[in-house]
Amino acid sequence: PHPLLRDHPFASAPVPTTPRSERPSLEVSFIVCTRDRAAVLEACIASIQAACRAHAAFAAELVVVDNGSRDGTSKRLAGIAETSDIPVTAVSEPHPGLAAARNAGLARARGRVLVFIDDDCKLDRDYLRDLERHYRSGEKWLIRGGRVELGDARDLPFTIKRCEARERLTPAVHPGGFVLGCNMTMHRDVAARIGPFDERFGAGGPLRSAEDTDYLVRAMLLGMPVEYVPDMT
Questions:
Q1: Which residue has the higher pLDDT, 194 or 58?
Q2: Rounded to two decimals, what is the model's pTM?
Q3: How far is CA 199 from the centre of its chain?
Q4: What is the pLDDT of residues 99-136, one digit of tens each?
Q5: Helical H runs in the chain?
Q6: Nearest Cα to 103, choosing from 196, 200, 215?
Q7: Which of 47, 68, 82, 113 registers the highest number of CB atoms within 10 A of its CB?
Q8: Do 195 and 17 contact (CB within 8 A), yes or no?
Q9: What is the C-alpha to C-alpha distance for residues 215 and 184, in angstroms, rounded to an integer?
């Protein structure tokens, strides 16, 4: 929980604290963490680029965190960055664990809105249009998550969310899976207030999962809503 943040081993990790007067012009930062998945990563990046081209007025960047890959990911990222029509920042984070990689992405992201996408996911072409519509409401002190569909019918229906109703997390609902970290977004000021991801959680960490669930709980303890919106895919 957030009140014990000072006792956490990650308490000194950097978080985005850009003052309002110095906020950059970028609207959104896509943060993708990866490890030894170069083949699927390229498809993920291509979908982000396509979504950015479809809504070019919404200035975006892509931050890709390589969490110790040994499959040539860094070389492929360098080639993608040279030819990309959106800014691409490749970050190397050797400390293993998804939470550590997410924190490295947070530290480098410059956008007003932060979007976490997993390296084996693909965005819908209209993702940015839907994202802009939701943030146009002016409500920024919350975490939002969108629908996650099964990309390959041959895969198991695991870590997906297909609910059609818009809803907010309440204390009566278990937070696990309410918003999935593979499609999670927040204003950078929200991330600065909650702090870094707890590096004990997440793939590659001691507890191996639930870094996103822990983040949702910490947001709620600070009085910030968590919202699921089915039209952000």
A1: 194
A2: 0.88
A3: 15
A4: 999 999 999 999 999 999 999 999 999 999 999 999 99
A5: 38-54, 73-83, 98-108, 127-135, 188-194, 211-221
A6: 196
A7: 113
A8: no
A9: 11
